[in-house]
Amino acid sequence: MKLHTLKPAEGSVKSCKRIGRGTGSGRGGTSTRGHKGAKSRSGYKSKLGFEGGQMPLQRRVPKFGFKSLNTVTNKPLNLDVLQNLATEFNLEIISFDTLVEHGLVSRKDVVKVLGRGELTAKLNVSAHLFSASAVEAIEKVGGTVTKL
Fold first, then answer.
1. What is the pLDDT of residues 12-24, one digit of tens each?
2. How many CB atoms lie within 10 A of CB 119?
3. With b meaning 16 or more CB within 10 Å and e meaning fewer, what string describes 72-89?
4. Angle at alpha carbon of residue 85, lines to 121 and 94, rounded to 5°
5. Do residues 30 and 40 make contact, with C-beta atoms less than 8 angstroms apart?
6. 125 exposed, middle or buried (CB, 10 Å; 0-12, 13-18, 19+)?
7. DSSP alpha helices (H): ranges in the chain?
8. pLDDT digits 0-9 by tens, 84-133
9. Residue 102: which of 120, 82, 119 has the closest Cα?
10. Sheet arrangement for strand 144-147
């Protein structure tokens, strides 16, 4: 190995085109920015949604309604999902941690158990909220309901 045989590693050097280094480079003059206008000036930064002075779409579209920042949305879980979980993993106790562990909900979710589907396994279910039909179906089979 000699100094004149050294080369940079494959893919480590980009073949970047040198811009604004005189007319001989082929990219002098306007330096690929075109003629005049805001984009040709130094220090140009486009604002988000700026459309060249035209009224931006965000301001053209009519606005109505109200969205509360304090809205709590529930993550619905039906009885058939709980039944599948119980049979697949042979569970008798389904807690919030179990649901998170199996990827059905995330830690931040507020879980509401709903009454769709058939429940045959005797389960001890703990969640934040329950519908009346879900409570009835779980207790009918002999399970228990625990609110978090």
1. 888 788 888 888 8
2. 20
3. eeebebbbebbbebbeee
4. 70
5. yes
6. buried
7. 57-60, 79-89, 96-101, 132-141
8. 999 999 989 999 999 999 999 999 999 999 999 889 989 999 999 999 99
9. 82
10. 93-94, 124-127, 144-147
Residues 146/93, Cβ–Cβ less than 8 Å: no
Which tokens go with 87?
């049979």
The number of C-alpha atoms within 13 Å of 58 and in the hemisphere containing its C-beta is 5
The angle subtended at Cα 61 by Cα 56 and Cα 63, nearest 5°, is: 125
* Spatial separation of the C-alpha atoms in residues 96 and 98, rounded to whole Å: 5
Residue 130 DSSP SS3: strand
